[in-house]
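[step 3/7] inverse_fold.run input=structure_tokens len=135
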């Protein structure tokens, strides 16, 4: 009976140890779209700070909102150990803001992907019921 308790306890300890070892750091970041109207807060000034913050937190996976393709390219160029997926909301390719997902390419593999729009035609870019932008 004592031997049974010993092995059950040992198994529980091993399980807890390995469960804790599988930590996943996930984040999200609204990087604000790149516009020349942001005097004093231009993307060219924010980009290094965004990269430094992501590097500091060492996210395994993070999402971004409001990023244009050039901004997402800047993040990838600053942090080349990440890959990303996301499409522009205006054309389903590169135009408009993206809601992108970045992931460490050495740790994760993109197995499937997909997008939808909050509209009457969810499989292609379009305006929602009372929207002024494609979402």
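[step 3/7] decode complete -> sequence:
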């Amino acid at each position: 009976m004592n031997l049974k308790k010993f092995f059950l306890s040992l198994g529980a300890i091993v399980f807890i140890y390995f469960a804790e070892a599988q930590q996943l750091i996930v984040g999200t970041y609204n990087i604000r779209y790149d516009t020349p109207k942001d005097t004093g807060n231009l993307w060219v000034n924010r980009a290094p700070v965004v990269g430094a913050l992501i590097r500091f937190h060492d996210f395994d996976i993070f999402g971004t909102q409001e990023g244009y393709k050039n901004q997402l390219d800047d993040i990838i160029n600053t942090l080349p150990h990440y890959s990303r997926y996301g499409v522009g909301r205006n054309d389903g390719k590169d135009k408009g803001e993206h809601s992108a997902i970045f992931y460490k390419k050495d740790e994760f593999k993109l197995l499937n992907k997909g997008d939808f729009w909050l509209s009457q035609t969810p499989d292609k870019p379009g305006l929602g019921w009372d929207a002024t932008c494609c979402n």
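[step 4/7] annotate
The first strand starts at residue 26 and ends at 30.
Strands lie at 26-30, 61-67, 82-85, 98-104.
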